[in-house]
Amino acid sequence: MLEVAALACRRGDRHLFSDLSLTVRPRTLLHVRGRNGSGKTTLLRALSGLLRPETGSIRWRGEDIHHLGDDFNRDLLYFGHLNGIKADLTGLENLRVMATLDQDPASDDDILDALEHIGLGGFEDLPTRMLSQGQKKRVALARLILSNAPLWILDEPFTALDSDAVHLLQTLISKQVADGGTVVLTTHQEVELTRGQIQRLTLGAHDTDMQEPAEEAPSNEGSAPPC
Amino acid sequence: MLEVAALACRRGDRHLFSDLSLTVRPRTLLHVRGRNGSGKTTLLRALSGLLRPETGSIRWRGEDIHHLGDDFNRDLLYFGHLNGIKADLTGLENLRVMATLDQDPASDDDILDALEHIGLGGFEDLPTRMLSQGQKKRVALARLILSNAPLWILDEPFTALDSDAVHLLQTLISKQVADGGTVVLTTHQEVELTRGQIQRLTLGAHDTDMQEPAEEAPSNEGSAPPC
Amino acid sequence: MLKVFGCILGRDITLALRRRTDVLTTLFFFIIVVSLFPLGVGSEREMLRELGPGVVWVAALLASMLALERLFAADFDDGTLEQMMLTGQPLALLVLAKIVAHWLLTGLPLVFIAPLVGMQYHLSDGAIWIMMASLAVGTPILSLLGAIGAALTLGLRGGGILLSLLILPLYIPVLVYGSGAVAVSMIEIADTQPYFYLLGAFLLLALLFAPLASAAALRISVE
Amino acid sequence: MLKVFGCILGRDITLALRRRTDVLTTLFFFIIVVSLFPLGVGSEREMLRELGPGVVWVAALLASMLALERLFAADFDDGTLEQMMLTGQPLALLVLAKIVAHWLLTGLPLVFIAPLVGMQYHLSDGAIWIMMASLAVGTPILSLLGAIGAALTLGLRGGGILLSLLILPLYIPVLVYGSGAVAVSMIEIADTQPYFYLLGAFLLLALLFAPLASAAALRISVE
Amino acid sequence: MTINLFKYAAPTAFYPAAGRLIPWFGGLALILILFSLYWGFFETPERLGGSNPQKEYYRIIFIHVPAAWMSMWLYLVLAAWSAIGLVFNTRLSFMMANAVAPTGAIFTFIALWTGAFWGRPSWGTYWDWDPRLTSELILFFLYIGYIALHSAIDDTRRADRASALLAIVGLVMLPIIFWSINCPDPNQCAALHQRSSLSNIESNILTAMLTMTLGFWLYSFATSFARLRGIILLRESDSGWVRKIVEREART
Amino acid sequence: MMNFLQQGGFGFYVWASFGVTFALMIAEVVQLGRNRRTILARVGRLSRLRGQRADAGSHRRHASESSGGQA
Ligand code: HEM
Ligand SMILES: Nc1ncnc2c1ncn2[C@@H]1O[C@H](COP(=O)(O)OP(=O)(O)OP(=O)(O)O)[C@@H](O)[C@H]1O
Ligand SMILES: Nc1ncnc2c1ncn2[C@@H]1O[C@H](COP(=O)(O)OP(=O)(O)OP(=O)(O)O)[C@@H](O)[C@H]1O
Ligand SMILES: [Mg+2]
Ligand SMILES: [Mg+2]
């Protein structure tokens, strides 16, 4: 269970949201929505512990995630705007390293199966640098198949994927939720679940003037504009 | 009119497509589709002259684009996976520089109008580094409003945009097509046009074994895999 | 034409001034490298005086080279370089504008800081003047030549160090004549003019060909 | 624990070997910088011998620092660093593994190339041995200290040169004692042992604290 | 006492308090500096005594030594605030460290500059690689490094924390660096260094020097408080109390 | 007076030291004053902008104002 209490975040000198409280139970998908720039990425990074919020607390199974530290990380799978795969390693090697670090008991065969499953059969021993944008993303998503972390945090996982891959990913997410996991994701598209329930959070909706910049950039003064 | 004859491209050691011929007339949108890794980006970069194709020719108004050189570039607006805006300049300054280089006669007021129109009113004097992913993309898309290039080549312009912005962009594309322009784009979503006609090209569909890597990467040999 | 040149020049200078420290870091890098030597080799006055010109020029080479790494890289990473190549303006012109902006921001300050550094090495006033003059003629050559290397190594991992590998050997003539001029000026009888003629000729040649070569290299790298 | 350490070590070494040039470039940079000096200062034997230790050590400083720029940057750019921070393994351990891999690839080769360089400066055999030993003890300190700077400047524009600004002053003790040991070894009566004790003590301290500080810096930078 | 401290640890409370203190610090600093200038130029002998008597240029001592002391003291202050900020996660401490850095760098530069202009008449050169001078130069580099890192990072929070960590690493390394410069040869280190002491300096000179030190000290309080107020305004600009202040000060 | 200025022939060194020291200190104070004014102006402009947000044209005016000011 992920509990967020009185959370406030700011980037630079802008308050993005404040006093955000919510609880995400197991078997639930939290779909964070909002316009461009409403702070979805910021919220997800705060939830995964990468960014320390201004105020407020985030608890996982009753304990503050910053106290849990590495224990929380072991329960978490975060997937950000960047794929987190090395361009010079092959898909197989990338996933092997991640499995070791995550202490997932995935053998090479498991990894090859996962790659096959995600539609990269035949590409597993190509350095990922040689893959297209969408294929790279697929390699990263293969971790979802291998991991048994109960909490997934996915930031716009559907971009750059073709419709096959989108479908596959939706199946994976449904399965994770059905198996008692928790998923937090952002996407501008709609998501459907076959089992489990969807909880929606819309950022920046109740109060549109949050969309305004709080302040001009300090470095922006004094120099002549180009051209 | 954009004419492609017997085009073949390869990336690394893989043939992506060969013997591709097509003609895109004015008042037409060419929607390039295909699975992840089918070569859409490669084709678009070839069409814009950034990448020299293996064989085949690309003609714009009857002349080879590599002979036309800068004259072709003046007719072209290319929009790639990268936004092409400087993070340290404000939206206004970015667009001002681009307008000067493109020799568009856009005054500051025109630019401000365009930014307002694309939903960035109030953000125009913030360095774009302070904007979210989608907001940055919007700044880049404001060029579409300012430019009067007859040929647009857009590589996945809809990613990271929220539904408002997607709608706006579709309107812009419709208008360009209606005004006698040519648009080439890739996206995994469907596009609709209010006027003008849509031509579709699906890459890698006729021949699925192209999805297989032709050859293993040379740099991949000889060193032990990690972990 | 001139408007486009001015636009890019202005853009790059604005960008640098938005991050004022960027400009200062090159300068301080130069000062720090120069100051490291006496710590490594000891501080005997006579020896430092002999070392001075060489150390200053080697430090200038390194500073210029390190700063060059970012000449096109930033524009490449955010896609603006791609856009510049598609604007219908001669690429060599845009490249020249970028190089000039770069030199104004990283090369020129070295000329002005040279007296300070000369003092640390106990150089005479005359030698310091010659050093300033030789830096003023030599550093633009460094920027021009370096631009070719920067364009070639664009987007490669470990670009910085690879760049130095490509470019440092090309810098050798500038180093030899630049430090030569200063060293010779410390001897009464010798004449520094031939050194400056040579450096000037290099500069002209580089000014003519380097932008073209860099533009060609950029086209290859962006593909 | 050991498995994780080995995994990261293996990963980084594999990555480097996939791009063999990366490893070689550091080495060549070192050689080129060392070779530039005789061109800049003249080739008098006596002076070169005196200069040798200092120049070699300054070049080692610069080479190590330049290579460090990429220590975390590549992982940061493609998001793998973020992932490493979220794996539930102590970050300091992962950082240490990365530093060790980095030293094996860029520091150790300098030790083996030292005799070649020593010859260029007409150093005696004894001095060359001492130089190799001092590099072997000193370069790990450089990698460890530099990692802190590399973590702090992660993802910043002009990172390379900023890094040098931050880190070169911290390298001074290593420079002083490293080159001091070699210089002293050329005098008959003097004893190099205290130098090595000092360097060894530094190394131990750095080994203890630098991974922790780098891990803290990474957490700050990735935020 | 502790309650008071915590009260002033909030930017809200600190801003007006600093505003009230600045004129006092500034005024006192001016008085002390003017006094010590008068004393230093008119009430002290024309040459410094000792084995190597120096002529009138020794008066540079009245700014050189206080500036050198301040440069080192302010680095300590900078590192201390940084450490407090990192440990207790108080925003004001980071701002404090930020506000002190430029003043410290200026004093370091002054020490270098005046030392150079003292060295020319007394040693015949503007610069020598004497340990003391070299360490001061390194201190200058450390200040510049702190400032450069802070301004290279856009996100103020990251900038604060990163440069604070750098300041602390610098503080740990400082003694090691200074010591390595002071004693480059561990075999005969003890013999190298001799300290000139203040005890045998004439008391008039000492008076002028110490008043100047105090003056510089108060001056750095005034400037860093003023800078701090600016930083607070910028960072808290979207909170209500800052808006009120701005409206009030726009009227006056 | 002349005597005082000459400082026993070392006037150049003494006055260069004292001059630069106090010039730097005064420059710092002046810069702080200017800095404060620009900060107040900017924060003021932003809070006014917030107040005016109701009417849609305000962003425009604000932006052109600032670009005019920069040029
Ligand atoms: C650029 C050149 C110089 C620099 C960077 C410099 C730096 C310093 C520093 C850091 C201190 C404080 C050290 C301490 O308290 O132990 C100091 C004190 C002092 N310096 Fe300098 N100095 C320079 C040149 C000179 C020269 C040329 C003289 C006179 C010949 C001089 C005379 C003194 C004296 C008398 C003190 C105070 C005595 C003491 O506290 O031990 N300095 N200087
Ligand atoms: N590095 C940064 N420095 C300062 N402000 C930032 C930074 N990154 C983002 N912001 C600001 O924070 C706000 C939220 O950004 P965030 O990336 O969380 O938005 P998002 O909801 O993920 O948007 P998108 O749908 O475009 O990805 C943006 O409005 C932007 O102005
Ligand atoms: N730099 C490269 N070097 C070698 N091969 C590459 C490179 N970039 C892409 N490829 C290969 O070219 C193929 C086509 O890539 P491209 O980026 O054109 O695909 P795409 O259709 O745009 O896919 P996506 O929908 O994922 O963006 C990929 O299968 C990939 O294996
Ligand atoms: Mg986002
Ligand atoms: Mg693509």
Kindly describe this structure.
The complex is a heterohexamer, with 2 copies of chain A (227 residues), 2 copies of chain C (223 residues), 1 copy of chain E (252 residues) and 1 copy of chain F (71 residues). Chain A is α/β, with parallel strands linked by helices and 227 residues long. Chain A is 31% helix and 25% strand. Chain A has a single domain (2-203), classed as Rossmann fold (3-Layer(aba) Sandwich), CATH 3.40.50. Chain A has helices at residues 40-47, 65-68, 70-75, 91-102, 108-117, 133-146, 163-178; strands at 2-11, 14-24, 28-34, 55-60, 63-64, 76-79, 151-155, 182-186, 197-203. Chain C has 223 residues and is mostly helical. Chain C has one domain (2-222). Chain C is built from 9 helices and no strands. The two termini of chain C are 26 Å apart. The model of chain C has no long low-confidence stretch (mean pLDDT 86). Chain E has one domain (18-45, 58-251). Chain E has 9 helices and no strands. Chain F has 3 helices and no strands. The longest helix of chain F has 41 residues, at 11-51. Mean pLDDT of chain F is 66; it is low at 52-71. At the A-B interface, helix 4, helix 6 and helix 7 of A face helix 4, helix 6 and helix 7 of B. The complex binds protoporphyrin IX containing FE, adenosine-5'-triphosphate (2 copies) and magnesium ion (2 copies). The site of protoporphyrin IX containing FE has 18 residues of chain E, from helix 3, helix 4 and helix 5.
Structural features:
A: about 230 residues, alpha/beta, Rossmann fold, four-stranded antiparallel beta sheet, 9 strands, about 30% helix, C: about 220 residues, mainly alpha, 9 helices, about 0% strand, binds protoporphyrin IX containing FE, binds magnesium ion, ATP hydrolysis activity (chains A, B), ATP-binding (chains A, B), nucleotide-binding (chains A, B), transport (chains A, B)
Assess the beta-strand content of chain E as a share of residues. Answer: under 5%
Specify the helix fraction band of chain C: over 70%
Number of domains of chain E: 1
Q: β content of chain C, as a range?
A: under 5%
Classify the secondary structure makeup of chain C into a structural class. mainly alpha
| Helix count from the secondary structure assignment of chain E | 9
Helical stretch tally of chain C: 9
- Please provide the ordered H/E string of secondary-structure elements of chain E: HHHHHHHHH
Oligomer: heterohexamer
Mean model confidence by pLDDT of chain C: 86
Question: What's the overall geometry of chain C?
Answer: elongated
Q: What is the count of structural domains of chain C?
A: 1
Sequence of secondary-structure elements of chain C: HHHHHHHHH
**Largest interface pair:** A-B, 53 and 52 residues
Radius of gyration of chain C: 18 Å
Largest sheet of chain C: none
Q: Span from first to last CA of chain E?
A: 34 Å
**Which stretches of chain C of 5+ consecutive residues score pLDDT under 50?**
none
The profile of the biggest β sheet of chain E is: none
Estimate the helix proportion of chain E, in percent: over 70%
Structural category of chain E is mainly alpha
Protein name (chains C, D): Heme exporter protein B
Pfam families (chains C, D): CcmB
InterPro entries (chains C, D): Cyt_c_biogenesis_CcmB, Cyt_c_CcmB_bac
Main location (chains C, D): membrane
